[in-house]
């Protein structure tokens, strides 16, 4: 039997009982446990050695795999491919000759840069591919110009070009690693090569320039530090080596577009450090590709980016040979000098393209249409009308937009959408927009102030801009296309955050709190001087009414105040109206309108709000002010904040108190990680039907609130009142601001003098505050100091609360609160005077305090135990409050005791009111509860 017949018999048997393990020698390993599938050519064929089961996780066609492996031609095909690979592979010396003889590169530069490689797994690792099945080749690694060390970027040339499925032509050069083909390649030189370049350009090499720890010895850093040295960009490492050999500083980029990012938005970071003002930059690409429309378009944009960086750019061109290394091989290195002299400046090169594009009868502008009369063949495809001095970021696309009849101002191709919105919608730093404390403000020329713009309005503005914006995209088949990628929420949110950060001014504007903008002028409220509106004042609120000084109180407003609050409240309401309007008025007070519904408190409050227009006033409740986000949302851009319907138990007032006093507080925009701190310059008014039950009432509500009582309705409501008040607003403003400053500040800063307000203040203090109510009904000041311990007062207080329906406070809280009500009656713990070398501790106690006569009765423990037959030797005494004996007036008597209404007479006696028989004296109460003035409790 012949050998051929024997092989055929083996393969026929294999077909009948196919076991892929018998064909493993014909499979190419890709990685651990995987092989290259002979059917789909992917490295995803897995074989289970124990059972012989196999599967390709890509094609999953096991029958096709078996058929291919058992074909008679399999071995012959493999041998043929291997022989072709060996025939086409180059030896290391042949690869060196490719550089030295084929491209006129010095052997010193060649051997310093190229490396021979033939191991397929190593090639795959170098390229960052999963597997590699091509031929051996050479590669170069780029040197980082900053660090001087070789990195991972470079260029690989297989001995046999690789045919990729998505490309018509085989690929000769492959940039690596995968995904970084745009990075430039910088070759290394010997010191002698460096010296030749130094001598050619007359730039000396200093001793400190040479660094032997660097792979490039410091050459590329030397180039960076000398902008007088020109650089030349070419395509391919061999061409760059040829330029370096003959004295030119050659830098390799793998295509014109690859010196840029994002199709021409900005220069690639790998070349950007070399593009500096004044440096000459030469472009020396293959002569045959410069006529390619796509390359021409890329070169236009690359030149524009280099020009924008203030560097000088020149285009090198020649008629013969393909690459610049071919030109050097044929004519020698001296050809470069003439090539440099004949290089065309970028501006002239652009003009030559313009003349070419419209000179022919069939002048095809790639997408700009055909000129049938030979005059204007179109500038559509490649920009056409770009002026190198045009600073516009989209200058390259101006001609395209003109040819396509598109609004050039809405073109967002070379720039980012964020930057376009910042410049187009907000005018950049010179526009009429600014951000302060994360809030947008827009200068309104007609009104004369910076109007606050809410975030939802800004978001809508950016969304509308995204609808108008378009991007130009070019393809070989369809030419220039208009796409609309910016109508996405992500673009809107990104642009909003970007513009907010760009428009935020680093320095706060000059404080102009003494100025107030009106419809017809700006008024200096310190002097009353009137000035025209000015953008520089940076006023963010306006009173949208004319200001005319010296007006009298309008009769309609006067009658409304008299009917609703009483004529005695007219000066108080005038003072608070002036406080709302005048930013220089004292802070620390707010009006609290108290009365039944329909009495006029809501009408007055809404009138105050309306003085500042729809955008200058805000309303809500106390909880809106307790957080930084709430303050930003409700107070930004406002002059007045109202709580028009307060009621019930109120807590969490610390932030409100601080805002009333105009203390600094934080703010933060929603979804913004960064907050801010500011004084808000906000005024407040509150309205309620009844008194409010305030948490920790001693913390300052009574000091800040100015209660204004509403009179019972005795007149018929006027249906035209709102219109009448609207008509007299300007006069009310002038009348309020004309109030003498001393009179206004006295009302705002002093205790109320009006009897109705005093009584209302007292009622407010007693409402819901069991401690103050206890003092008012059960305690009186005594002329003798006495000694009242804490526990006795707390026992009386508990008895009072039980009888009057209050929930008593614990002793510690009660004593702490009582110290805020009667601070002058409290005596802190101390030591007694030294007697015979000894002294004793005197506990904290109260003085000049006695209970109302008959208000409390003590039940002795002995009596109580007999009644209940449960004897106890150490029980606390039980106190009972007699409600009928409790009398109002304690708070006012304590106030008069420490601050007499009349000065003492010559004998040193105080006001006779303190010596009345109705004020019993408590001389002493012992801490052990055993000796108590019993006459006080009968």
Quick synopsis:
This protein has 938 residues and is an alpha+beta fold. The chain has five domains: 3-86, no CATH class; 92-357, Dna Topoisomerase Vi A Subunit, Chain: A, domain 2; 416-503, no CATH class; 551-763, P-loop containing nucleotide triphosphate hydrolases (Rossmann fold, 3-Layer(aba) Sandwich); 769-937, Orthogonal Bundle (Arc Repressor Mutant, subunit A).
Could you walk me through the main structural features you see in this protein, from its secondary elements to its overall organization?
- By secondary structure, the chain is of the alpha+beta class.
- The protein folds into 5 domains: about 5-85, no CATH class; about 90-355, Dna Topoisomerase Vi A Subunit, Chain: A, domain 2 (3-Layer(aba) Sandwich), CATH 3.40.1360; about 415-505, no CATH class; about 550-765, P-loop containing nucleotide triphosphate hydrolases (Rossmann fold), CATH 3.40.50; about 770-935, Orthogonal Bundle (Arc Repressor Mutant, subunit A), CATH 1.10.10.
- The chain is about 35% helix and about 15% strand.
- It has 32 helices and 42 strands.
- The strands form 14 sheets. A 5-stranded mixed sheet has the order 10-9-13-14-15. The protein has a 5-stranded parallel sheet with strand order 26-27-31-25-33. The chain has a 4-stranded antiparallel sheet with strand order 1-2-3-4, with no helix packed on it.
- The radius of gyration is 47 Å and the shape is elongated.
């Amino acid at each position: 039997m012949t050998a051929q017949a024997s092989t055929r018999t083996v393969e026929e048997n294999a077909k009948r009982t196919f076991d892929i393990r018998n064909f493993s020698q014909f499979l190419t390993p890709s990685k651990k446990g995987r092989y290259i599938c002979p059917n789909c050519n992917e490295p995803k064929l897995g074989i289970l050695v124990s059972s012989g089961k196999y599967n390709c996780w890509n094609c999953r066609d096991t029958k096709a795999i078996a058929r291919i492996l058992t074909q008679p031609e399999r071995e012959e095909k493999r041998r043929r491919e291997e022989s072709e690979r060996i025939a086409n592979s180059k030896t290391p010396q042949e690869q060196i000759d490719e550089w030295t003889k084929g491209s006129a590169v010095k052997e010193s530069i060649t051997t310093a840069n190229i490396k021979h490689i033939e191991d397929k797994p190593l090639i795959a690792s170098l390229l960052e591919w999963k597997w590699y099945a091509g031929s051996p080749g050479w590669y170069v690694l780029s040197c980082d110009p900053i660090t001087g060390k070789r990195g991972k970027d470079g260029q690989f040339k297989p001995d046999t070009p690789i045919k990729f499925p998505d490309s018509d032509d085989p690929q000769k050069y492959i940039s690596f690693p995968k995904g970084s083909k745009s990075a430039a390649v910088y070759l290394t030189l010997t010191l002698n090569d460096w010296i030749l370049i130094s001598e050619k350009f007359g730039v000396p090499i200093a001793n400190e320039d040479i660094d032997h720890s660097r792979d490039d010895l410091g050459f590329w850093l030397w180039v960076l530090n000398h902008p007088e040295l020109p650089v030349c960009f070419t395509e391919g490492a061999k061409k760059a080596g040829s330029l370096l050999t003959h004295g030119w500083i050659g830098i390799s980029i793998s295509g014109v577009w690859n010196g840029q990012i994002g199709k021409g938005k900005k220069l690639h970071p790998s070349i950007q450090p070399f593009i500096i003002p004044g440096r000459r930059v030469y472009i020396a690409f293959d002569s045959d590709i410069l006529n390619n429309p796509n390359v021409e378009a890329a070169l236009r944009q690359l030149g524009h980016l280099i020009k924008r960086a203030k560097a000088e750019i020149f285009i090198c061109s020649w008629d013969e040979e393909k690459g610049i290394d071919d030109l050097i091989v044929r004519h020698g290195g001296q050809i470069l000098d003439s090539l440099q002299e004949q290089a065309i400046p970028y501006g002239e090169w652009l003009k030559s393209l313009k003349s070419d594009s419209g000179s022919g009868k069939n002048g095809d502008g790639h997408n700009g249409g055909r000129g049938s009369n030979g005059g204007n063949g179109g500038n559509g495809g490649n920009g056409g009308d770009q002026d190198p001095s045009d600073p516009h970021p989209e200058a390259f696309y101006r001609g395209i937009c003109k040819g396509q009849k598109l609004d050039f101002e809405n073109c967002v191709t070379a720039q980012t959408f964020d930057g376009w919105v910042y410049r187009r919608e907000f005018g950049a730093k010179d526009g009429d927009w600014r951000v302060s404390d994360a809030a947008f403000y827009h200068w309104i020329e007609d009104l004369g102030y910076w109007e606050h713009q809410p975030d939802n309005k800004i978001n809508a503005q950016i969304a509308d801009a995204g609808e108008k914006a378009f991007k130009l995209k070019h393809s070989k088949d369809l030419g220039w296309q208009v796409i609309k990628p910016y109508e996405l929420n992500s673009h809107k949110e990104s642009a909003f955050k970007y513009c907010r950060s760009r428009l935020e001014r680093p320095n706060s504007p000059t404080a102009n709190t003494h100025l107030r903008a009106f419809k017809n002028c700006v008024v200096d409220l310190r002097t009353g001087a009137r000035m025209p509106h000015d953008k520089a004042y940076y006023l963010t609120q306006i009173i949208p009414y004319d200001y005319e000084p010296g007006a009298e109180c309008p009769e309609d407003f006067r009658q409304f105040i008299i009917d609703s609050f009483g004529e005695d409240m007219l000066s108080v309401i005038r003072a608070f109206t002036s406080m709302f309007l005048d930013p220089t008025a004292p802070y620390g007070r707010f009006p609290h309108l108290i009365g039944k519904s329909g009495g006029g408190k809501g009408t007055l409050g809404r009138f105050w709000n309306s003085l500042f227009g729809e955008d200058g006033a805000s309303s809500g409740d106390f909880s809106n002010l307790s957080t930084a986000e709430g303050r930003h949302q409700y107070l930004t851009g406002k002059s007045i904040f109202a709580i028009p319907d307060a009621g019930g138990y109120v807590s969490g007032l610390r932030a409100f108190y601080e805002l009333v006093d105009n203390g600094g507080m934080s703010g933060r925009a929603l979804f913004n990680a960064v907050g801010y701190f500011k004084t808000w310059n906000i005024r407040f008014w509150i309205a309620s039907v009844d008194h409010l039950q305030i948490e920790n009432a001693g913390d300052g509500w009574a000091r800040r609130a100015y209660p204004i009582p509403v009179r019972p309705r005795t007149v018929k409501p006027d249906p035209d009142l709102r219109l009448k008040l609207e008509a007299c607003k300007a006069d009310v403003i002038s009348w309020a601001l004309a109030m003498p400053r001393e009179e206004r500040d006295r009302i705002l800063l002093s205790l109320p003098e009006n009897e109705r307000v005093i009584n209302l203040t007292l009622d407010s203090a007693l409402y819901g505050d069991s401690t103050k109510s206890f003092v008012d009904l059960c305690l009186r000041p005594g002329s003798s100091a006495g000694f009242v311990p804490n526990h006795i007062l707390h026992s009386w207080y508990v008895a009072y609360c039980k009888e009057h329906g209050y929930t008593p406070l614990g002793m510690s809280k009660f004593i702490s609160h009582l110290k805020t009500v009667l601070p002058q009656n409290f005596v802190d713990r101390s030591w007694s005077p030294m007697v015979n070398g000894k002294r004793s501790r005197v506990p904290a106690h109260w003085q000049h305090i006695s209970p109302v006569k008959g208000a409390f009765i003590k039940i002795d423990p002995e009596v109580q135990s007999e009644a209940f037959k449960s004897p106890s030797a150490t029980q606390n005494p039980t106190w009972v409050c007699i409600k009928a004996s409790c009398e109002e007036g304690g708070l006012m008597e304590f106030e008069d005791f420490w601050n007499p209404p009349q000065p003492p007479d010559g004998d040193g006696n105080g006001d006779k009111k303190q010596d009345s028989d109705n004020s019993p004296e408590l001389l002493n109460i012992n801490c052990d509860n055993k000796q108590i003035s019993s006459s006080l409790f009968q």
